[in-house]
Amino acid sequence: MMHTTVGWHVELEFEEDDLHTRAAALVRLPDGREVRARGHASRHFSDANQPRVGEEIAGARALNELAMQLLTKAHDEIDEASGRTSRPLTH
Q: Of 21, 12, 27, nearest to 51 (Cα)?
């Protein structure tokens, strides 16, 4: 049986105009630290105005950047605790 010992909440906020969507992602970690990232999407002027699509693209890019920052943070913590340099965590 699996037990949940911690939960993370990720927040996404969007700013939009007719051609651009910007996303800001934030996760608060149990130790009180915050990791933030941004994503961006642009609509070609000939494409239909579909704000949800721009949010999905910008949001995914922000979450991808957030994931990469968390992998880097974990990698650095592993190296610090072990006293050696390990291979980067990229997958």
A: 21
